[in-house]
Amino acid sequence: MNWISNYVRPTINSLFSRREVPENLWTKCPECGTMLFHRELSDNLNVCTNCDHHMAISPRARFTALFDGGIFSEIAVPAPVEDPLKFRDQKKYPDRMRAAQKETGEKEAMLIAEGEIGRTPIVAACQDFSFMAGSMGMYVGNAIIAAAERAVELNRPLILFSAAGGARMQEGILSLMQMPRTTVAVEMLKEAGLPYIVVLTHPTTGGVTASYAMLGDVHIAEPNALICFAGPRVIEQTIREKLPEGFQRAEYLLDHGMLDRVTARGDLRDELITITRLLMGLPPAVMGDLPAPTKPEPPEVAEPVEPETPSEANPDP
């Protein structure tokens, strides 16, 4: 037995011919630990197929699944002043912004768009938690105002998906000023008689919860989403008591009257279509995006023919 040809050579060949496997092909569910193939996870809208844990999803991926045919148009947002306070902690604020933009591929923490869901025209806004924890800064305030103005201009409802860790500390008092600004934007929709629907996703906390995230006509949450102003750990340290199981989670808030519905991500589109058309006074949407059924016309009935008499059938010669 030649160990060089039978062992060493195949080992060397395998080292040089080994293909590199991308690291992002599999995702581990943080709830149950199941390894999920990236295509399977994407097809299921970033929801674990084993335990139904709802993971984070980007605004573009959410809009692609929400709008008819995945088609939507972005709405321009006025750019705010860059780094108005010249803030610096471990990094400069502009450096943090550039790092977040490179990581997410987005300009800021909120994306707004217009399109149709179930042939119902809407305006939608979605926060991106992966962009500096979805923090509410001047750009987010401008985005919500732009979305509300566009909804009023087109006479469309506004659907907002919230996901934030609170106000953006790098903008100081200017970020807190977005709370009354966005409240005025919501009031514009109410004065125009247009529905404002909020979908609270995990997590929605801080000043976002204290302003536009809790001012909707209808509040829907994704399962097990954390929704609060101050987090449970802060509350426990303050009152020095153990909080109830599931405190500040979507199901707990639904039981205590703070939410209207808790809906899984896969059922959310149909739920929003139904609620939006109901609030806009429109007829129910046709499932499957098919033409509306028409009432069939009754079949034509032929008039009876009288049988011929024998004399008429065989006249005498």
What is the alpha-carbon Rg in Å?
Answer: 29 Å
**CATH T-level fold name of the largest domain:** 2-enoyl-CoA Hydratase, Chain A, domain 1
Give the assembly state of these chains. single chain
Count of individual helical segments: 11
Q: How would you sum up the major sheet?
A: 7 strands, mixed
Low-confidence stretches: none
Q: What spatial order of strands do you see in the largest sheet?
A: 3-4-5-6-7-8-9
Spatial gap, N to C terminus: 116 Å
**Mean pLDDT over all positions:** 88
**Into how many domains do the coordinates divide?**
2
**What overall geometry do the principal axes of the alpha carbons give?**
globular
Top-tier CATH class of the largest domain: Alpha Beta
List keywords for this structure.
single chain; 317 residues; alpha/beta; 2-enoyl-CoA Hydratase, Chain A, domain 1; 2 domains; two-stranded antiparallel sheet; 11 helices; 9 strands
Brief summary of the model shown:
With 317 residues, the protein is of the alpha/beta class. It is built from eleven helices and nine strands.
Annotate the secondary structure layout.
Layout: H1 3-17, E1 26-28, E2 35-37, H2 38-43, H3 59-66, E3 72-74, H4 93-104, E4 110-117, E5 120-127, H5 138-154, E6 158-164, H6 173-176, H7 178-191, E7 196-204, E8 218-221, H8 232-239, H9 250-255, E9 261-262, H10 265-279, H11 310-313
Parallel strand pairs: 5-6, 6-7, 7-8, 8-9
Antiparallel strand pairs: 1-2, 3-4, 4-5
